[in-house]
């Protein structure tokens, strides 16, 4: 099935544009790239800020609502990581990290995935998958980055000379293929591929569960939910955020 690719010079947010169209009943398959977003959104109400050319920002409309959210996000993450470089890892459930580039050899964030949905009835629900990838490491603006250890990485550190257009050429077909594959086969088609790039495995994570507040990440189940070995036993974390202890 075909997909239309649209490039906008400037808009508020590629996710917002596709969500607005979906709310108006548009179910056509579209990949929308923005050279610049005025109001890029991150997860949990955060903003995604980038200067034109410094990151690749695009969204794809998915004309179905997945049963497993973490699974969809991981499937897209796997597709993006595989299209880029062996060092690109996935931090469950939505982040792309670059291994071993921090000041103490730890990873640094390269980009993220934001999935938003429209509609409640199964026949009309739609999802928009938004992806932001740093081509250059963001400098944090005039005030700089508050803590340089948290400064995100840029793909040009892994792939010298790469620009946003080349990142799009590599990543877009991989993401579209992954969305079809996920629709047919679910997360099963991606589980082993995810495990090869699982940043959290073996690391101590904080969960949002009061009676099992921390544990060691063991990997994911068949649906893409995170498995955490806590003092209260193995817990499944399906939604919400985990944070990772620096190690
Ligand atoms: C995150 O790391 O919190 C997710 C960031 C997702 C950013 C992308 S950029 C393209 C799409 N449009 C948006 O407004 N956000 C997503």
TrEMBL record:
Catalysed reaction(s) here are: biotin + L-lysyl-[protein] + ATP = N(6)-biotinyl-L-lysyl-[protein] + AMP + diphosphate + H(+)
In its UniProt entry, the species of origin is given as Caldimonas aquatica
- Report domain BPL/LPL catalytic positions: 1-183
The terms under GO molecular function for this entry are: biotin--[biotin carboxyl-carrier protein] ligase activity
Q: Which domain of life is it from?
A: Bacteria
Q: What is this protein called?
A: biotin--[biotin carboxyl-carrier protein] ligase
Q: What is its EC number?
A: 6.3.4.15
In terms of NCBIfam families, this protein maps to: birA_ligase (TIGR00121)
């Amino acid at each position: 099935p075909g997909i239309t690719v649209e490039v906008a010079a400037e808009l508020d947010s590629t996710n917002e544009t596709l969500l607005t169209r979906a709310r108006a009943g548009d179910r056509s398959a579209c990949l929308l790239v923005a050279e610049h977003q005025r109001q890029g959104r991150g997860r949990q109400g955060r903003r995604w800020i980038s200067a034109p050319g410094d990151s690749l920002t695009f969204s794809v409309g998915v004309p179905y609502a997945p049963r497993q959210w973490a699974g969809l996000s991981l499937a897209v993450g796997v597709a993006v990581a595989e299209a880029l470089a062996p060092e690109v890892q996935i931090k469950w459930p939505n982040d792309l990290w670059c291994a071993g580039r921090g000041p103490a050899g730890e990873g640094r964030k390269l980009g993220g995935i934001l999935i938003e949905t429209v509609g409640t009835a199964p026949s009309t629900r739609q999802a928009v998958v938004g992806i932001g990838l740093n081509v250059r490491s963001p400098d944090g603006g005039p005030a700089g980055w508050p803590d340089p250890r948290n400064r995100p990485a840029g793909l040009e550190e892994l792939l010298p000379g790469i620009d946003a257009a080349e990142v799009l050429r590599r990543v877009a077909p991989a993401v579209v293929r992954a969305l079809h594959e996920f629709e047919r086969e679910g997360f099963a088609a991606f589980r082993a591929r995810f495990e090869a790039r699982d940043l959290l495995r073996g690391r101590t994570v904080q969960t949002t569960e009061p009676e099992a507040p921390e544990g060691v990440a063991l990997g994911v189940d068949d649906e893409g939910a995170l498995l955490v070995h806590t003092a209260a036993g193995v817990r499944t974390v399906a939604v919400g955020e985990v944070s990772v202890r620096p190690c």
